[in-house]
Amino acid sequence: MALTAETESRLYRSLRVAAGAAAHLVALGFPAAVAVLARPGSSLFSWHPLLMALAFSFLMTEALLIFSPETSLLRSFSRKVRVRAHWALQLLALFCALLGLGIITYNKHLNGKGHFVTWHGLTGLLAVLYTGGQCAGGVLLLYPKLMKNWTLAKLKLYHATSGLVGYLLGCASLMLGMCSLWFTTTVTGASWYLAMLCPLVTSLVIMNQVSNAYLYRKRSQH
Q1: Burial of 3 (0-12, 13-18, 19+ CB in 10 A)
Q2: What are the distances in angstroms from CA 147 to CA 142, 143, 181?
Q3: What does the pLDDT look like over 11-43, one tens digit per residue?
């Protein structure tokens, strides 16, 4: 029997809610697992994986999910409050990422190792720099008059789209980090595959959220 439009809509909404809930759990669970593995404080390096997991898995994921109509933890608050929370989380993510980058750079210097000679290192550097640029670009949303030829709606759309690119870069850096010698000697078997799924799950949820925002804007124009 064919599903009615109303039933399909409810089913789709339920799936989005479930996916969002899974993203929240993964966003928090992944850094927690990394903290157990890295044992922050046991060495200088131990802070690097934790800070990067906090930046790109937890803080940035929550900063983006905060605008989800189904799964935002602040959906009962005004948009102004959610925007401020988004800013705070993004700045915290940038701070953690910069600190994590500084720590690994200094650690390599102490051990006489080369800088940014792996795909993980290069992608991580690009992700951090991109995040900094994305935060700077967000200022345009606070002062849209700086871009006289662009509407606020268009600025929001481009900011969300470019933010998705930065988020995917961060997730790619995390996944490449899980291919490193440190991670593969610590996590093996099914646990390694499960860990690799974490950035994939959150990436799919965030991509769906951004694509829905784009489709909603297109419909509102007609």
Answers
A1: exposed
A2: 11, 8, 46
A3: 878 888 899 999 999 999 999 999 999 999 999
Q: What is the number of domains present in the chain?
A: 1
The domain spanning residue 108 has which CATH number?
1.20.120.1770
> Is the whole-model pTM more than 0.85?
yes
In angstroms, the CA 187 to CA 197 distance is 14
Q: 144, 155 in Cβ contact below 8 A?
A: yes
Q: How many CB atoms lie within 10 A of CB 31?
A: 24
What is the domain range of residue 199? 22-220
Q: Residues 169, 123: contact at Cβ < 8 Å?
A: yes
Give domain status of residue 7, yes or no: no
